[in-house]
Amino acid sequence: IPKERKSDSTSMTVQVTPSMAVTMLDALPYLIDYPYGCTEQTMSRFLPAAITAKTLSDLKLDAETGMSRAFGGIVAEHADKTHPKGKKSLDELSEMTKQSLDRLYDFQHGDGGWGWWKGGESDHFMSAYVLWGLCVAKEAGIDIRADVMNRANDYLDKELVEEERNADMQAWMLHACAAYVSLPDHAAMTEFQHTAIENLWKQKDRLNAYTRSLFALACHDLHDDEKAKTLVENLENGVKKDDRPDASVIIGPMGAKNPAVMATAHWGEDGVWWRWSDGPIESTAFALRAMLAIDPKNELIEPVTNWLVKNRREAQWSNTRDTAIAILALNDYLKASGELNTNLEYEVQVNGKTVASKKVTPADVLSAPSEFAVDSSLIQDGMNSVRIVKKSGDMNAPIYFAAHAEFFSLEEPVPASGNEIFVRRNYYKMVPKPTLLKGVTYTRMPLQDGGEVNSGERVEVLLTIESKNDYDYLLFEDNKAAGMEATEVRSGGNLAARELKSGAVKGNFGAGDREGGKLANDLAVTDVTEYTNRSAGVYEELRDRHTALFISHLPQGVWQIRYELRAEIPGTFHALPVVGHAMYVPEIRANSTEERVTIHERVEQ
User: Fold this and answer.
1) DSSP letter, residue 165
2) For the ranges 197-211, 240-254, 539-553, which has the lowest average pLDDT?
3) Cβ-Cβ contacts under 8 Å for 324 (sequence gap 6 or more)
4) Which end of the chain has fewer beta carbons closer than 10 Å to its terminal beta carbon, N or C?
5) Distance between CA atoms of 409 and 4, rounded to whole angstroms?
6) Which tens digits make up the pLDDT trace of 66-102?
7) Residue 16: beta bridge partners?
């Protein structure tokens, strides 16, 4: 914390929780609100209901207790935003499960499979989806007709050989059959399943993360432990791991890595993806399930869980199926990590002084995080030490924490900073250039800190934003230099954030010189060919002192927003930093550096 600050403006809080997977409870009500029609929609409603029932059962909660912990139980004051459709009752689970099962039974074809609708031919993907969901439901204690499951397994078993050239589909089908075989009192592995295993094993080096995870889970269920372990080890190839979520490529050096900062890791495509097996949420959730089942000590488990928790939209993920499978994975994590049985006492110490102590019992694990305010007299200039000390109980129990400080900075210039999101601002003077055919065109001339412009000249503002994960409801307040005004005269301008290609990020900002050195190109100028096809809508609201830019959803990546100001009043001015934050998770925030600019009186020619 810098010495150059108003000391009476400084505050600090420390949040502590025995489980980060508790956030999954807030997604349960969303899962019961899904209209069904075709087989897939019916299944996409039934499977979440079954998983909700299984989660409540595993957590030893009934529906009423679950509702008291879910629906805004994590951040109750923002429940209207995380659950915009209002409160849903989990008491509807039993009736909804019965309706969905009756419909699925009625839709089953004579050959044992399912199509997209009741009529038509049986579909491999849909049939495997239904059988796997029925297996999950049976594990949750839901009564499932044995004849329906037997016929479904027979159909898929015979059809496995038809997909020997389609590894994604064959692994999906094998995963469903293996889940069926692993249930108590069911038949052993068949010859066709053995053939499918050998076929997929020959292709193991070409499998993507989703398919590899399904194959690993199938081998685990079919007791082929050696193959299952190898497949999980191979998941490390291609994992997208961020060891520095506290650092950004767009703002340059951030100092040495802080060992207290938890990394994130995931699989799948982050941008536009077409194949179902490329989706990042399901790929990551199934990979987590595979690691938990086969290698529960894998060092990727916590970073992967961290990524899943951080990449929700509102209280859930992008759709019901993503949400259901993510919850299933987080439920597995809770059981494997031992967090449900946490029993310990800890102290929070700041600069050697105890500020709080608390006992945690299993009944507290699913509660909202505990938040402790730090007395301002304990906060010192420079480095501050925050320690979480386990005093008694289960000394191996995991515990998660975050520290958050706010202060009014007197630094000059104010340095850039961020947590999960980062923002960089560049100014460009728009220099007119007459042409014979196009009239007057403009070229951009970079304005460095302390740059000069004349009254009446246009200045382009370029905001570059790095989002470490998918985030909702972001607000960026761009504080204007006092001598400048927006060229637009009305709020609601048609702005968009455009995503930079990875090559453009590296070309303009370097490979991420976070420990030291300079950015590859301090100007960060790009042309249209350096953008992807993705964009995010931005609502612009003009204020006297700043321009407010609202982004309802910003996917992971590096994005740029451009708009214009006009230099008007002569003088030397400071443009205070751009300040950005997630409106309903204020700990996710960023600020740019400040810029200084001199505006001269315009001289008439």
Assistant:
1) T
2) 240-254
3) 31, 44, 47, 48, 51
4) C
5) 6
6) 555 554 444 555 556 555 565 555 566 677 778 888 8
7) 370, 401
Per DSSP, the residues of 429-459 read EEEEEEETTTEEEEEEEEE-TTEEEETT-EE
The per-residue DSSP string of 391-437 comes to EEE-TT---EEEEEEEEEE--SSPPPEEESEEEEEEEEEEEEEEETT
Which residue's structure tokens are 């060992």? Answer: 259
Residue whose tokens read 């207790």: 65
Coil, strand or helix at 493: coil
Report d(CA 99, CA 88) in Å as an integer.
18
**288 closest CA partner among 263, 274, 305:** 305
Name the residue with tokens 């289960």. Answer: 394
Contact 565, 482 (CB under 8 A): no
Residues 6+ apart with CB under 8 A from 73: 25, 26, 366, 367, 368
Token pair recorded at residue 490: 């009305």
Residue 603 DSSP one-character state: P
DSSP letters along 264-308, please? EEE-S-SS---SGGG-HHHHHHHHHHHHHHH-TT-TTHHHHHHHH
- Contact criterion met (CB below 8 Å) for 277 and 251: no
Distances, alpha carbon 599 to alpha carbons 154, 172, 447, 543, 570, in Å: 79, 64, 12, 21, 5
Residue 462's φ and ψ, nearest 5 degrees, are -115, 115
Among residues 446, 567, 559, 563, which one has the least CA distance to residue 502?
A: 559
Residue 25 DSSP one-character state: G
Q: Tell me what percent of the chain is helix, strand and coil, each rounded to the nearest 5.
A: 35, 30, 35
First to last CA, the chain: 50
Integer Cα distance of 581 and 566 in angstroms: 26
367-395: pLDDT as tens digits: 767 889 999 999 999 999 999 999 998 88
Q: SS3 sequence, 379-393?
A: CCCCCCCEEEEEEEE
Contact 170, 164 (CB under 8 A): yes
Reference 301, options 223, 236, 219; nearest CA is 236
What's the token pair of residue 8? 């009476």
Type of residue numbered 455: S
CA–CA dist 140, 149 (Å, integer): 15
State which amino acid sits at residue 377. S
Q: What 3-state DSSP class applies to 168?
A: helix
Residues in a beta bridge with 454: 600
Q: What is the tens place of the pLDDT at every residue in 169-227?
A: 999 999 999 999 999 877 788 899 999 999 999 999 999 999 999 999 999 999 999 99
What's the rounded Cα separation, in Å, for the pair 183 and 150? 12
Q: Give CA–CA dist 513/326, Å, rounded.
A: 34
Burial of 386 per CB tally in 10 Å (0-12, 13-18, 19+): middle
CA torsion angle for 539, 540, 543, 546 (degrees, to 10)? 110
Helix (H, G, I), strand (E, B) or coil at 537: strand
Q: Please give the structure tokens belonging to residue 322.
A: 């993503």
